[in-house]
Write a structure and sequence with these properties.
The chain has about 80 residues and is an all-alpha fold. It contains 3 helices and no strands. The protein has a domain of about 55 residues.
């Protein structure tokens, strides 16, 4: 074993980067997260996958999201968790 090692040419960060995904920090309301987790358990899928699909569907929608649409979506999701 050497007494000293030169790490100058090394790169900092993850050893292997995930392709097509980025780790972020996001704050969601507890009831929204609970609804996605409940739905994910019922469907035996990952809750993050469901959130990703919901965001993707929103981006692809033809009309822009407004407050009324957001309220409708949340009501629908919460109604689905009550069943």
């Amino acid at each position: 074993m050497k007494k000293e090692y030169d790490f100058a040419p090394g790169d900092r960060g993850a050893v292997r980067k995930a392709k097509g995904k980025t780790r972020i920090t996001i704050y969601l309301d507890d009831d929204i997260l609970d609804a996605f987790r409940t739905q994910a358990t019922k469907e035996q899928r990952g809750y993050q996958t469901l959130i990703n699909e919901a965001l993707r569907a929103t981006i692809r929608s033809e009309k822009p999201m407004d407050a009324q649409m957001i309220r409708r979506i949340i009501r629908e999701e919460l109604a689905n968790t009550s069943s």
